[in-house]
C-alpha cells in the first residue's frame, strides 16, 4: 500500500466513522475545516500536507474515481460511506432505471428476506456500473451482483442521492432486487 493510499484510508476512517479519534467534531453534513483537520491529524501522528490532501480529494491518482472526499472552499468532508450521523444536504436525484449492488453469496438468504439494509452505514451503496458493483462485492469474496429496479423504487417514493459514481438510498425492498444479472454485465 502506498503512503497516499494509507492516508486516504485513514482519512476515510476519520471523516466517515470516528472523527473523535483525532479530536474532531463534524458539522451535521459531515464537513470539517481543512486547517482544523490537518492540525488534528498532525497532533495524532498523521501529518499530511495541503498538497497531499488535494491529491486525496482528486482520488483518480490514488485509487480510481470513487470521489470519496469533497473539498469546498476551506472545508472538506467524506461524500459517502459514513457510519456517523450525517444528513445529506442536497436534493434527491432521479436514478437510472437500473442500479447494481455487489455482495457475496453468504448474505443472500438475509437479503432475500430483508432487502438491502445499510447496516453500520447511513445508506445502502449502489452503482450504475455492474463491473464497479462486482469490485465492491469482491472485497468480501466471490462477488454476486444484484440488479436494483431503481425506476420502480423511485416511482414508489424512495429517494436517491448521487455521490460521484456511487448512488445512495436508505434501503432496497426485496421485491426490487433481482439476482439474474446477465453474465455479460457482471
Ligand atoms: C450486505 C466501499 C445481510 C451488503 C465500497 C454488504 C462501497 C446485507 C454488507 C462502499 C443486507 C455491508 C460500501 C441484509 C446488505 N442482510 N447482509 N439485509 N443488506 N447486506 O461495507 O456496499 O472503498 O457497509 O451486501 O467500494 O459493501 O470504502 O457496504 O456486503 O462503495 O470508499 O452487508 O464501501 O467504498 O457492507 O460497501 P458495507 P458495501 P470505499
Task: Summarize the structure in words.
With 186 residues, this protein is of the alpha+beta class. 30% of the residues lie in helices and 20% in strands. It contains six helices and nine strands. The protein has helices at residues 3-17, 34-43, 50-57, 108-114, 130-138, 150-155, and strands at 32-33, 69-72, 75-78, 98-104, 124-127, 143-149, 161-163, 166-169, 177-178. The strands form three sheets. The protein has a three-stranded antiparallel beta sheet with strand order 1-3-2. It has a three-stranded antiparallel beta sheet with strand order 4-6-9. The protein has a three-stranded antiparallel beta sheet with strand order 5-8-7. A hairpin with a 2-residue loop joins β7 and β8 (166-169). The longest helix has 15 residues, at 3-17. The two termini are 27 Å apart. Ligand HQG is lined by residues 12, 66, 68, 81, 103, 107, 110-111, 114, 116-117, 119-121, 125, 136, 140, 166.
How would you summarize the topology of this molecule?
Elements: H1 3-17, E1 32-33, H2 34-43, H3 50-57, E2 69-72, E3 75-78, E4 98-104, H4 108-114, E5 124-127, H5 130-138, E6 143-149, H6 150-155, E7 161-163, E8 166-169, E9 177-178
Antiparallel strand pairs: 1-3, 2-3, 4-6, 5-8, 6-9, 7-8
Amino acid at each position: 500500500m502506498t503512503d497516499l493510499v494509507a492516508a486516504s484510508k485513514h482519512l476515510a476512517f476519520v471523516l466517515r466513522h470516528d472523527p473523535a479519534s483525532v479530536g474532531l467534531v463534524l458539522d451535521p453534513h459531515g464537513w470539517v475545516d481543512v486547517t482544523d483537520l490537518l492540525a488534528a491529524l498532525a497532533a495524532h501522528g498523521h501529518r499530511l500536507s495541503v498538497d497531499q490532501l488535494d491529491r486525496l480529494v482528486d482520488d483518480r491518482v490514488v485509487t480510481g474515481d470513487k470521489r470519496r472526499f469533497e473539498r469546498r472552499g476551506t472545508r472538506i468532508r467524506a461524500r459517502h460511506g459514513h457510519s456517523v450521523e450525517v444528513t445529506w444536504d442536497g436534493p434527491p436525484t432521479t436514478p437510472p432505471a437500473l442500479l447494481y449492488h455487489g455482495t457475496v453469496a453468504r448474505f443472500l438468504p438475509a437479503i432475500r428476506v430483508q432487502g438491502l439494509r445499510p447496516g453500520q452505514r447511513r445508506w445502502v451503496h449502489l452503482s450504475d456500473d455492474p463491473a464497479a458493483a462486482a469490485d465492491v462485492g469482491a472485497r468480501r469474496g466471490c462477488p454476486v451482483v444484484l440488479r436494483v429496479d431503481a425506476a420502480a423504487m423511485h416511482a414508489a417514493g424512495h429517494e436517491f442521492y448521487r455521490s460521484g459514481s456511487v448512488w445512495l438510498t436508505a434501503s432496497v425492498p426485496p421485491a426490487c432486487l433481482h439476482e439474474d444479472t446477465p453474465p455479460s454485465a457482471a
